[in-house]
Amino acid sequence: METDWRRHAKNRLMTGLIAGAFVLAMIPLVSLVYEVTKRGIPGLSLEFFTADARGVVGEGGGAAHAIVGTLVITAVASLISVPIGIMGAIYLNEYGTGRLRRALTFFVDVMTGIPSIVAGLFAYALFELFLGPGIRLGVMGSVALSVLMTPIVIRSAEEVLKIVPNHLREAAYALGTPKWKTIVKVVLPTAFAGLLTGVMIAIARIVGETAPLLVTTGVVDSINSDPFNGRMQNLAVYAYNEYRSPGVFKQAAYDKAWAAALTLIAIVMLLNILARLVYRRCKTEIR
Amino acid sequence: MAQVDTTTNAGQLLAAASGGRRRLGDRVFSRTAVVAAVTILLLLAGVAVFLVSEGLPALTAGASELPEGKTFLDYVAPLAFGTALAALIAAVVAVPLAVGVALFITHVAPPRIASTLGYMVDLLAAIPSIVYGLWGIFVLGPAAVPVLKWLEEKLGWIPLFEGPASVTGRTMLVAGLVLAVMIMPIVSAIAREAFGQTPRKLTEGAQALGATRWETIRMTVLPFGRSSVISGAMLGLGRALGETMAVTIILSVSGAVTFNLIGQANPSTIAANIALDFPESSGLAINALIATGLVLFAITLVTNMGARAIIARQNHE
Amino acid sequence: MFKPSEDVVAEPKGQRAVGRGAKTIETRGVDLFYGDFHAVQDVTMTIAPNRVTALIGSSGCGKTTFLRSLNRMHELTPGARVTGEVTLDGEDVYAKGVDPVAVRRLVGMVFQQPNPFPTMSIHDNVAAGLNLNGGRIPKSRKDEVVERSLRGAHLWEEVKDRLDKPGSSLSGGQQQRLCIARAIAVEPEVLLMDEPCSALDPLATLAIEDLIAELKSRYTIVIVTHNMQQAARASDVTAFFNLDATGRPGRLVEVGATNEIFTNPSQQETEDYVSGRFG
What we know:
Chain B is mainly α. Chain B is 75% helix and 0% strand. Chain B contains eleven helices and no strands.
């Protein structure tokens, strides 16, 4: 039997360790946000957002092409993933039975674990088969990202559809509403804010992806907004390239890399905060 | 059949509303849902099929045709070793930390701020890996140099810290630490959920017996959340195995197979190797890289399925 | 040619005289199952139009399950099955080729918990049946239906100035009357009510009972209730359900005029139940 003071000392020690673990875990977050802000600000300028990098050596030039690339690649990936993901969630929650439902649940879990670089290789292998080796297109990156995004969308959408109370569906059925209209006009509107939250979180997850794009969209230094023609680049790949091939004027390139990193963090945090705000509304709506 | 005198006949109404448009709408919509479900399965099957079909040429090719003139097995083995080593360091560091963080949020911190704290931890998971990579090489790496030096001097007799210590910080240890920061929120989120569900009657029962906070945690919360922590750890491990950019940027690679975590020469990982070599490769080298991707896919798949199996068994209980 | 059902729904009141709609429901040998569980056994009864029929009995005796089989809501539960025959004015609602959706247009339902659609305003909740099923219906006609239904549900005066507010902003009793308005807006022939007052306070309950008494002039009403006083007050006919033991199927013990059932039932178990000896 431990004596009392020993027990209390141990309690204090362990509580201290637990609190210490939290503080320790927060250090990287604080350091990261601080360093990225400090190092990112010098590179931020109007030019950074409006100019591309064509023919730029050293200072000057911007990431406009990477910003356009981020928007296009992410948008196309969302266009693929969001409808499939939400319809898949509707299948799981409203229709699914038996083996297909079980298989889908299981394999969506599997899909959430696919390494992002593997998704990139898949997209490359897929397009190479039809378009030949060495192919690089914006849409290839979107396909790779949609492999990562779809399971996130389907998972969050399924959770949200699950919390739409069944009595609302029954109320619609009792009015003589067909099932599909019940889903479209009652279930989805009730779940809307939650679905939107899920989509925003999913976009936040893929918007800063680098690895799958390294093998699919290539490197480019001028604006290209056509995902089906020519190379593309997002902000993350831009940051990586500025770091990796800084050329002669290293500091200028690093400044741009950090500026891109800062922009990315800002986008991701904004999406997360917005998603949180939207979700609050969703919770009051579904009761 | 009894004919009841009413202005509208029930049979007419039933017949009018049956069939036709309504049925069509339901059929179209439910089929669309099934198509979406099948598409997702096909997408995943496609990942496996295309990796196999594009990786196969490298698996069957002779050593002389492959990069570095090695057989595929000799090519992938050091990479797999590096992958496992980096992920292991990450898990060893992240799991205890994640458990501590989860306990702090669920059972130590004031409930009022718990969700905000949880949100801050989640933010760590939201930061893009490229940012972690830059932070690792420009901030953590340089900061780690004196620590690496110290490790070499004081703990050099342990093979892990054999040295000579890197002067840039681009070492396996630093890469593993950055991976640990990246996976900690994942493990922590799962542990948090489990700890938060510890039945109140258990914790209150322990407190009623005069248990201190730590004793309550040790006797009720930790046993209750044990399998969740294990499965969370495996999910985190799976994530660390496949994480690319942080390792690609931070690690200074040489292809060496070594347990020395603080040296200049480090084994690469499968993912980092693909990211580094793919853009400049062509021909069979591409196939070889895709084949290594297949190996990575298989390793993460097994790890994740193990984690899911633990979760499933636990839900069953 | 049959009329498209949308037109039937939106038809102005004038063209459909009072008493036109109510239908007779007959059930013959109805057995209800949830998977392997036999919930209700062999119910044969006739439910008369323009009457309030109360289904009473202890919990778990299958009265709600039986009620839900009348508008084919029972089969929405996964694994649920129905055998036997349910007819509406002689037409088998379970016949092959009959769309359950069509049955539910004719047989409306009000639930235990008031369940207005949270994303819709008061106005849109009442118009939900039209919006969800109909094609394009002119706004003026919609407003007409909304006002008529809300008046019919004794709610108009209370909400006419805030029709655009969400349905969930109303009190529980008002919400339930909103749900009744929503149900009668599609002009069903039969109105099923599953313990409509169990979530309400006594005053709101009284308001609903008054409403039920008035609605029976136009509808066949079936109401499930736990509350025997309510059955005695509000119904014309009472059907008593019982079950022999937990896990055994519920069955219809007897059905008769409400005052008969409560004063002079023919079965001993009914007597025991209504006199409060069990349940």
